[in-house]
Amino acid sequence: MKRVLLLFCSLFFLYSCGDDNSTPKEETTDDQPSQPVITTIKTFDNVKVAFGEDLSQSAEGTFNFPANLDDVKTIKMYIKDICPNKECDEWDRYANVYAKDKTTGEWYELGRFINPYWVGNEKLERGYEIDVTDFKSILSGSTELKIYTETWNAKGRKYSVEFDFEKGIPDYKYSAVVPVIQYNKSSIDGVPYGKEYDTNKFDLTRTVSIPSIAEIAYFRTIISGWGHALPGTCAEWCVKTHTININNSNTFQHKLEGLGCSKNPINNQSPGNWKPDRAGWCPGMVVPVRFNNIQKSMFGTAFNFEYEFEDWTDNGTNKDGAFYALSTFVVVKSNSPINKATISN
């Protein structure tokens, strides 16, 4: 019996104490996910845009982003629209943020939003959130930014903008982005809708060439309508479906319909008319991005692109007219070094 006890004790000692002097490692489970590693870059800080003498509807600045983005998985932009005590422009104004391409000097629209009536977006902890990972190739090092609002009074709007760079493995190692078309300086600088317009000034056709080494490519489009032209009070209130035609074939559809404006968390826009649905946007919300994947069979070839509006005729009774502010980019990605897509008229 003593021998059995001695053997048992010996085995117990061996397995419980042993000769492993390493520090125990904490086990990770799905219930204990690791926290993301995020670098936050603050850019515009309480900057004012307004209309009037010595005022400007836009503000520009140069900011330092991380120089090496190889280990960055996502980039998020947060926009605080600051309006305490109803001191801001009370109307639902068109607004957007741009970054300048260091190579061409062209401004790229990162995101678009519409101001709420009377108030800011303080109800949102960090303001409007927009995923701008597609613009990773231009958001590195010293970068010029611009924020714009189509305000027409001296009260204007004040903004603070910051970016979160989250570390991690990106979906593809390399990416590049280039505009296909941009008619987005303001709502009324958009493409006139429902009547003939100067096709040289508003050319909605392009030739696009995707690099053959691309592993994925897609269009990234933002579109919002403005105006109360009849019939249908277009383009702000009328539901229309527009298309991207590839080689003269209707390939992608963009239906501009209600987004559920009455469910907006910025629900204190009294006395503004914020609850009714607009055509593809809401006061106090980000204008949605529309994504369309390009077939791999198109890679390495040149194809025709056309943005086409649904047929509708302005009857001319409202002189303000109807407009669509439009931007479409093409994003290409690969695990091998890749150049931008080529765009030509």
From TrEMBL:
Domain spans labelled Peptide-N-glycosidase F C-terminal: 196-314
Alphabetically ordered keywords of this record: Disulfide bond, Glycosidase, Hydrolase, Signal
UniProt-recorded Gene Ontology molecular function terms: hydrolase activity, acting on glycosyl bonds; oxidoreductase activity, acting on paired donors, with incorporation or reduction of molecular oxygen, reduced ascorbate as one donor, and incorporation of one atom of oxygen
Signal sequence coordinates: 1-18
InterPro entries found in the cross-reference section: Cu2_ascorb_mOase-like_C, N-glycanase, PHM/PNGase_F_dom_sf, PngaseF_C, PngaseF_N
Residues in Peptide-N-glycosidase F N-terminal domain copies: 97-164
Record-given protein name: Peptide-N-glycosidase F, N terminal
